[in-house]
Design goal:
Elements lengths: L2 E3 L6 E3 L3 E2 L1 H4 L7 H13 L4 E3 L8 H9 L8 E6 L13 H15 L4 E7 L3 H6 L1 H11 L3 E7 L3 H7 L5 E7 L11 H7 L3 E5 L22 H4 L17 H10 L10 H10 L6 E2 L6 H8 L9 H15 L8
Length: 327
């Protein structure tokens, strides 16, 4: 396992880390026992960083992480997020009293005294323009309840806005073969300012595994069913903002990347890892098998400059025009 510095903080994170949205909920059925086995397998492989949120299973993924990392608090870093368990459009949600309450609740579920990275969870852009939420986070950091803080954003515009606040030490962004826009301006600026980059949804909700067909279906409680068209939250969080059938067809055209790299998913993750501007990639998982599949990307052969150019041209011509929502 290789480790990368998270921006200019004193934290070094495994370049392949993991997100826990899937084991918390909204991705169909999952077993807690298998989730705990998968978390253990990841840590045994050298993973030292996990991303979660207070709304993943209404705190369930935070509780699972507390159980899995008990006794490893000094070796395993945890990032969590807040604001979406309240009304994200209400200014009071970002007041010091509210942020403090969110923080204390997460600390209790995580069974920790400090959150390593505390992130505002995809707030409206007006909240970022106002900036008072960062004053509240500064106070929590001064008290030692938060080690560093950052923001999970939906668009490049939001990310660039966050870079105006010196206390923001990490940005979590959607970046994958179907969402290449962040590498144009956001990543270089973040790197220049010492801000770490966490990449979420690297497989575009599974599209980049190449395993779906136009007739694939998902459980009713899976966001790939209920948020397919952005009915519950930002459409970009599901299938990278692509209409499902279009995404399946585009993924089929990318099947070649898996040749000699184990699988299409391993190749898609390897492509992200080759970007030196990112701190880590955080794919999701439901079981040990998926953890191991994701980790296999660490050994996958890289891409030639010609292949990377081919992928960029494909994105510009065929993918970018089809993406819905701000990004």
């Amino acid at each position: 396992m290789n480790y990368r510095q998270l921006g200019n903080t004193d934290m070094h994170v495994s370049e392949m880390s993991f997100g826990t949205w899937a084991i918390g909920g909204s991705w169909g059925s999952v077993s807690d026992e298998e989730s705990l086995r998968a978390l253990e397998a990841a840590m045994e492989a050298g993973v030292n960083f996990f991303d979660t949120a207070d709304v993943y299973g209404d705190g369930h993924s935070e509780r699972l992480l507390a159980q899995a990392t008990k006794g490893k608090e000094d070796r395993v870093l945890i990032a969590t997020k807040f604001c979406r368990s309240g009304d994200i459009h209400d200014a009071d949600t970002y007041s010091e009293a509210s942020v403090r309450a969110f923080c204390e609740a997460s600390l209790k579920r995580l069974e920790r005294e400090r959150i390593d990275l505390y992130q505002v969870h995809c707030p409206p852009i007006d909240v970022l323009r106002d900036g008072s939420v960062f004053e509240a986070l500064d106070r929590l950091k001064a008290e030692g309840k938060v080690r560093e803080y950052g923001v999970s954003v939906e668009s490049v515009e939001e990310g660039l806005l966050c870079l105006q606040y010196p206390g923001v030490k990490a940005l979590q962004v959607i970046y994958n073969l179907f969402r290449q826009k962040p590498e144009e301006e956001l990543f270089p600026q973040a790197k220049a300012q010492g801000v770490g980059i966490l990449v979420r949804l690297p497989l575009a909700s599974g599209l980049l595994t190449g395993k779906f067909t136009e007739s694939s279906t998902f459980a009713a409680d899976d966001h790939r069913s209920f948020n397919r068209n952005g009915d519950s939250f930002n459409v970009g969080e599901t299938f990278a903002g692509l209409p499902f059938e279009k995404g399946v067809a585009l993924a089929r055209e990318l099947a070649w990347i898996g040749e000699g790299r184990g699988s299409m998913a391993s190749a898609a993750l390897r492509w992200i890892l080759e970007n030196g501007d990112i701190s880590c990639v955080i794919p999701g998982f439901k079981d040990t098998r998926q953890v191991q599949q994701n980790l296999s990307a660490l050994e996958a052969p890289g891409f030639t400059p010609q292949e990377r150019e081919r992928l960029r041209a494909f994105y510009e011509a065929s993918v970018r025009p089809a993406i819905r929502g701000p990004y």
